[in-house]
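User: Run a structure prediction on this.
Assistant: Running it now.
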Amino acid sequence: MSRERIFYLADRIVAELQATEGVVVKDGDEETRKDVRNEVIRTLTDETKLEESIDQEVRRILSSYSRPAPEGSREWEVLYNKTREEVFRKRFRL
């Protein structure tokens, strides 16, 4: 995800949080809003890095096959999704 996209999403998430009943963000407290926004940005950035790491591992695994499927083919998509699920389960012990 691009930096601009992360900032945009963070602003949207903070706005939604402020509009959610039961969630209290001090009105007029810009410092608190910035803290919440910065935490959302950090979380989105971490998730993006995790996704990129998993993608790289999956692509490495798929390229190591003796007969790799052409990227973009239906076979590659199926193998990619299956391998991604396995890598995700392995990393998070699900």
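The chain has one domain: 3-92.
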